[in-house]
Amino acid sequence: MHRQGNNIALRLRELIFDLQDFYLLSYKGSAGIISKPFYLKDTIEQMDYAGAGSFPIVVLISLFTGMALSLQISAELSNLGLKMYTGKIVGIAIIRELGPVVTAVVYAGRVGSGIASELGSMVLGHQVDTLRVFGVDPTKKLVTPRIVTALLMLPVLTVIGDAVSLMGGYFIAVNVANQSGTFYWSAIRAVLNFENVLTGIVKPFVFGFLIATICCFMGLSTQGGAVGMRQSTTRAVVYSMIFIVITDFVLTRTLLYVLGLSI
Length: 263
Hints:
Layout: H1 2-31, H2 40-80, H3 86-124, H4 127-133, H5 138-175, H6 181-191, H7 194-220, H8 225-258
Helix pairs in contact: 1-5, 2-3, 2-5, 3-5, 3-6, 3-7, 3-8, 5-6, 5-7, 7-8
């Protein structure tokens, strides 16, 4: 019993230290955005990898997400004689919730895992220590460009994903559910108001920051060779997805209250 108590206390202590290191890394990485030197080349390389590289998979997943959502909603509303509301429901669901969350999950799975594995291999190969020897701040060099990339690329990918999802919903609504395309786009324009657009734009910035900082922290915390790198990469993706879902709920509840849309 005494040994079990010691193990719990040890794990709690490690958790507190890890949280301290994570917050410090997040702060230093964010502060590096407005302080010199600016590693513009590294940032552009990361933007190309995260943005252009993720574009095809975001488009593909968003397209079928919009089509599946429109198909399900049309089928249910047809039974109630309310099929004309398909466009409105699809628009709200995609702009507020599915678009930001699905794109963030894709970003975490593709880009986040790449960040963790890349930084983990640099730690194991002592490249991070080499940067310190040459007087280069590893946080400024490695973390800040990835935070900037996530803050810029994830909102852009989310907007693109939303547009593709709405196009997929339109295809199903018109060609499968036999609805009016004009009425569908009229409903979409109606839901593109300030409240919905703000909700759909704020979330990607928060998700991007969380994904970048979590994956960078996990990558730079890698220990134990190949097994350790596998564990850190897995944790980076899993923790990112968990915090995306939790933060989505918190942001949704907060924004509904701030915008006066609470239930």
